[in-house]
Amino acid sequence: MNVAIRKIGNSEGIIIPKEILDRMGLKAGDSVNLAEEAGQLVLKPIDDEFARQLEHAERFMDKYKVALKKLAE
Q1: pLDDT band at 49 (very low <50, low <70, confident <90, very high)
Q2: Strand (E) positions, 17-60?
Q3: Which pLDDT belongs to residue 30?
Q4: Cα–Cα distance, 8 to 11 (Å, whole number)
Q5: Domains and CATH numbers, the chain
Q6: 16-33: burial string, b at 16+ Cβ within 10 Å, e else
């Protein structure tokens, strides 16, 4: 499926057709991860609950990094 890159404010973007969003279970406001893999752009849905847990774990590890480093020895 071909889509054009369009000017959106000061950025540029693409319009994702509704049928693709429906198949992926996505809607306006959902978050996706954009990555470049082997010269291709890849969009993957983000599991909001997992992202929240990961953010919490990163804050925990940062807060207790000295203790965690000692435990790892």
Answers
A1: confident
A2: 32-37, 40-45
A3: 86
A4: 5
A5: 6-72 (2.10.260.10)
A6: eeeeeeeeeebeeeeeee
